Amino acid sequence: MKTRLITLIFVLFATISFAQSTSQAPIQNISTDSDVTYRLFATRNMYTFIKLNTRNGQMRQVQWSTENETRFETILSDISLVNKEEERNGRFFLYPTTNIYNFIMIDQIDGRAWQVQWSTEEKNRAVMRIY
Hints:
By secondary structure, the chain is an alpha+beta fold. It is built from 1 helix and 8 strands; from the N terminus they run H-E-E-E-E-E-E-E-E. It is globular and about 40 Å long. The N and C termini lie far apart (49 Å).
C-alpha cells in the first residue's frame, strides 16, 4: 500500500512538471512590421497573452474569457527600460522558452536581456534582468 501511494505521488508530480515544461517552444505568429509600438505575444495558455510596448519594454498580461470575472489586463512591468529619448518602435522583443510561464525579452539595440514570468497569481509574476 505504501509503495502504491509513493508511486501515485511520483506520477502526479511528474505529470504536473511535464505540463509546465516541454522541449518545444510555442510557435509565434509575429508580424514582420518593426514599426509598431505594441505586440501581442501568445503564451501556451490559450487564454493568456503578453502585450509588449516595443519602444520601452513595459508589459501587461492580457487574459481573455467569455466571462467578465475572468477577463483582465494586469501589469507585468510598468518600468520603462530606456530613457524617453532612447525609445524606438521595435526595440524590445519577446522570445518564448520551453517553460510555459517564461519568456526572454531582449533589447535589440544594446543586447540586454530579461526573464519575463507571467502567472495568474500576482505573487508569481516577475521581470528579472539577466546579467
